[in-house]
Design goal:
heterodimer; A: 285 residues; alpha/beta; five-stranded parallel beta sheet; B: 391 residues; two-stranded antiparallel ribbon; 17 helices; 9 strands; flat
Chain lengths: 285, 391
């Protein structure tokens, strides 16, 4: 069997270490946990892996109220009760009221799927522990119908976390792990390139300069990330801003145009404006 | 063959389990990694390290191990705190130089100058074959630390090409060896949870439904109740500044854990001890103050009051009017403390100072008396005890 390897796609630049972690997870059919600064493409990774390997994707987005069971199945007792009152025939078969969750759907897929468990840290602190057995053995038991659900093909499971909560050791031991570092200039250049293939070289250089300068400001609450840079460039293009407007000697005393796309936090905007003001004063004396 | 490496990792303080080692071996057998050292490094990292704060340590152990320097593990713990480094710049650079640099561009430049100064000394350092100073006599070995990312010491060309990726030490900033992880704190704080039903009725109340349906002779009568929420209310007062600087880390952890664990969490800051004003934003503490009286009026008795502070100060600051270090206080801190305790009977004081030192600090004794002995060390065990006292 020719093993499929993930090596990035035409719209997603994967670094060597990321590729290695993904390929190890794909080969050994173990989950991979991806962490990193917000906006570095953690969720996007699952979408791109599914696309690159030509596999169906199941996305399970976790919220603070999500319970582990909901990923497996839910028993809709209220619907059954209502049907029994109305004398519906469906009521005799309990399996009519078992609603499949995302994990079950992925287990039942006819070919090996990619399952994204997005932002696992949003859920309750015990959530990952409740999924250990399911992710390890890739099977679970439905009590209502006394049925054992086993994965037809072990899915490629990609778990993302924003570090809001620490994950239990038992869960971590079962995963591969990758931390997406903030891309360096070179990688960032490539990333921008796949999104805006026709971007002028001069604009790219100036935009990256301005971007990293904003990122280097100490004390920002939320540093702008890749996704913000991409949005910003899109805006720059839409407004047809020339590269010269971003030039650094200009910038020391001016705020980059459309910086609202880069700084999302009011305090950060204030801080930045204050710094620029100070620089301007220092420059004029 | 990887067993010695495995133990080197464990000796180096990484909690690597056998399961993870087996996973790595399995992946190697499956041919995931090919034959390059870089591949092996990436694979081992993905399989063995599960926490980004440990990545740096892994890099160092990996570098040391695969360079055949396995007796240097002890040096890995010779961490260089930034403060120390700043102090070192004071030793190495003269007053005028520093002033000149500071005006030119601040810390980054300062580090650059320091690096150059150290480069001048290269000849002396180079006597040995390696840049890791044995027994850590020189802090600026190959692993000198500069927060701005300027490497002190070994230049890139010195490396054999195989040992390079991990030597860049990308994850330096993330390393934090903390005993009190946020997870532990959260688990401890959970004990304080008290569930109550509040808000919109959107959950099926099974018991009431069955009961009412039976009363209706079997005709379905669905009853709903609001979802259960953690209804505990916490008022957190944190000491900032001065002697608390050493404990900032642990307080931040406690704060972030508490913040996500409680829906009703109010926090205020104070300096050394509570007086007539508290504040919410430490940067604007002199302009945006909240009178303690307002706090007493705003938050009801059902709030649980948690002080966090080292309680280390001059006893005058507690018992005398005008004793405060930063302003003239009309009434003594102890009076304010008693008012707070009268309004909030459920109160504890968490102290990050080590327990052994409590007996030797008069102000700690004083405050312990004030809070009826409900002072607990800011450790997991202490937190547990404190939470029990709050319930």
């Amino acid at each position: 069997m020719a093993r499929q390897r993930f090596s990035g796609t035409d719209s997603y630049i994967a670094t060597d270490d990321l590729m290695m972690a993904v390929n190890a997870a794909v080969t050994l059919e173990r989950p991979i946990l991806v962490k990193g600064e917000p906006g570095t493409g953690k969720t996007q990774l699952a979408i791109e892996v599914a696309r690159a390997l030509g596999k169906p994707l199941f996305e399970w987005h976790i919220k603070s109220t999500t319970r582990a069971r909901q990923g497996l199945y839910e028993y809709d007792a209220v619907a059954r009760l209502r049907d029994s009152q109305l004398g519906d025939d469906r009521v005799h078969d309990i399996s009519n009221y078992i609603v499949r969750g995302k994990i079950w759907e992925a287990f039942a897929a006819p070919e090996q799927p990619v399952l994204l468990i997005d932002e696992i840290d949003k859920a309750d602190i015990e959530f990952p522990n409740d999924l250990l057995q399911e992710l390890d053995r890739m099977e679970f038991y439905v009590y209502e119908t006394r049925e054992l659900v086993q994965a037809r093909h072990r899915p490629i499971i990609i778990v993302t976390s924003n570090n809001e909560k620490e994950l239990p050791d038992a869960f971590l031991r079962r995963c591969f792990f990758h931390y997406i570092r903030f891309p360096d200039r070179e990688t960032m250049g490539r990333i921008v390139d796949v999104h805006f293939p026709n971007l002028k070289k001069s604009l790219l250089v100036e935009a990256l300069n301005a971007f990293y300068r904003v990122r280097d400001v100490d004390g920002l609450k939320k540093k702008p990330s890749t996704s913000e840079l991409l949005d910003w460039i899109k805006l720059l293009l839409a407004e047809d801003i020339p590269a010269e407007a971003l030039r650094s000697d200009n910038l020391r005393s001016a705020i980059p145009p459309l910086y609202g796309a880069l700084l999302k936090n009011e305090q950060d905007v204030h801080l930045f404006e204050r710094l620029v003001f100070l620089n301007r004063k220092a420059g004029s004396t | 063959m990887l067993i010695p490496f495995f133990f080197a990792l464990r000796d180096g303080g990484l909690k690597v389990s056998v399961t993870e080692l087996l996973t790595l071996l399995e992946a190697l057998r499956a041919g995931v990694a090919g034959y390059s050292v870089d591949d092996f490094y990436y694979l081992a990292r993905a399989a063995l390290v599960k926490d980004e704060s440990r990545l740096d340590r892994f890099d160092r152990i990996f570098a040391a191990y695969f360079r055949g320097v396995d007796d240097k593990l002890a040096d890995l713990f010779a961490e260089l705190p930034e403060d120390w480094l700043r102090r070192e710049t004071e030793l190495l650079l003269s007053e005028e130089e520093r002033a000149a640099i500071e005006s030119a561009g601040g810390f980054a430049e300062l580090m650059e100058a320091l690096r150059q100064r150290l480069d001048d000394q290269e000849g002396r350092h180079e006597g040995g074959s390696r840049w890791i100073g044995t027994a850590g006599t020189s802090p600026f070995g190959a692993y000198g630390y500069n927060p701005e990312g300027v490497r002190i010491g070994q230049a890139g060309s010195r490396h054999r090409s195989a040992v390079k990726v991990w030597d860049r030490r990308h994850y330096r900033n993330l390393d934090d060896t903390l005993e009190l992880g946020t997870r532990n704190i959260k688990v401890a704080l959970r004990r304080l949870r008290r569930f109550a039903r509040e808000g919109a009725a959107d959950e099926l109340d099974l018991d009431a439904t069955i009961d009412n349906t039976a009363r209706n002779a079997g005709l379905l009568d669905i009853r709903m109740v609001p979802e259960r929420h953690n209804a505990v209310k916490v008022l957190l007062c944190l000491d900032v500044g001065g002697s608390m600087d050493d404990h900032v880390r642990v307080c931040e952890e406690l704060f972030s854990a508490a913040r996500s664990e409680f829906k009703h969490l109010e926090y205020f800051y104070f300096h050394n001890f509570v007086y007539e004003n508290l504040w919410k934003d430490n940067r604007r503490r002199h302009t945006e103050k909240t009178p303690t009286r307002d706090v007493l009026r705003t938050y009801g008795m059902d709030y649980k009051l948690v002080f966090v502070g080292d309680a280390t100060m001059s006893p005058y600051e507690i018992v005398y009017a005008g004793g405060s270090v930063e302003h003239w206080n009309e009434e003594a801190g102890a009076v304010w403390m008693q008012r707070l305790l009268r309004t909030y009977p459920k109160a504890i004081w968490l102290n990050p100072e080590p327990l052994e030192r409590w007996a030797y600090t008069p102000s700690i004794k004083l405050i312990r008396e004030l809070v009826d002995d409900r002072m607990y060390p800011l450790t997991i065990a202490g937190l547990d005890e404190g939470i029990r006292a709050l319930r």
